Each structure stands twice: as C-alpha cells, then as structure tokens.
Amino acid sequence: MRPPSGPADQTATLSVVIPCFNEERTLARCLQRLLEITDDTLSLEIVIVDDCSTDRSLTVARELATKYPNVRVLGGTKGRERLSEPASAACAASSLPYRTPISSTTPWISSG
C-alpha cells in the first residue's frame, strides 16, 4: 500500500533565525550551508539578526540579503550579552508560525 501523496507543487517553508555577533568571517558560510538544504519541497525564510557587532557582520549580512531575496536582516540598537534576546526579536519578526534559531557555530553549519 502506498502512502497518500499531496500536491506535487506543495512546498514547505521554514524560518531560520541566525543571531550573530562578530560573525564577519563565518556568516556567509553559515548562510551557504543553509541554502544547500533547499530543494523543490523546502524553501527558507532566513532572518539574520546582528547584535551590534563591532566587525563587519552587519555589512556582510546586508550584502547577503541583497544577493538572496529570502534573507532579511535586523540590526540591534544596543549590544546585549546574550544572543537569546536578539534571536527572540528575529523570531518575532518572522512571517511563519514555525521557526528555529541557529548559530554559525552549530556543528553542521561550521564544519566543512
């Protein structure tokens, strides 16, 4: 017995939040690894939230958002010691009901 199949053109969308602080060197690779998982059945809404980095993280994030239409950038107005606060702000800004925050130091993101 075969499982029921849905419409062939049905695509799931997932919001992924990338909180960053001084991730200038790792942000582009993090995003590239995420983009590698998309296919005809999965699209991503990616929200990068910069927590007042002192390097070029915000500039890199904005350049990536210009290159990829599914990437949005939020910049912090005040530095925080915990990335959970800007990540929560990014989750709130997401347009989808299901979200997952990740970090550029997440093992499958930072390796390779």
Detailed description of the structure:
This protein has a four-stranded parallel beta sheet with strand order 3-2-1-4, with helices on both faces. It has one domain: Spore Coat Polysaccharide Biosynthesis Protein SpsA, Chain A, CATH 3.90.550.10. It is an alpha/beta fold. It has helices at 27-35, 57-67, 84-93, 107-110, and strands at 12-20, 42-50, 71-75, 99-101. Mean pLDDT is 76; it is low at 108-112. It contains four helices and four strands, in the order E-H-E-H-E-H-E-H. 30% of the residues lie in helices and 23% in strands.
Question: What's the gist of this structure?
Answer:
The chain contains four helices and four strands; from the N terminus they run E-H-E-H-E-H-E-H.
Across the major sheet, the strand order is 3-2-1-4
How would you describe the shape? globular
Task: Look at the helices and sheets and give the structural class.
Answer: alpha/beta
CATH architecture: Alpha-Beta Complex
Helix fraction bin: 25-40%
Low-confidence stretches: 108-112
Span between termini: 40 Å
The count of strands amounts to 4
Main sheet makeup: 4 strands, parallel
The CATH class label is: Alpha Beta
Number of helices: 4
Number of domains: 1
Cα gyration radius (Å): 15 Å
Helix-strand pattern, N to C?
EHEHEHEH
Strand content: 15-25%
Mean pLDDT: 76
CATH topology: Spore Coat Polysaccharide Biosynthesis Protein SpsA, Chain A
- Could you state the CATH homologous superfamily? Spore Coat Polysaccharide Biosynthesis Protein SpsA, Chain A
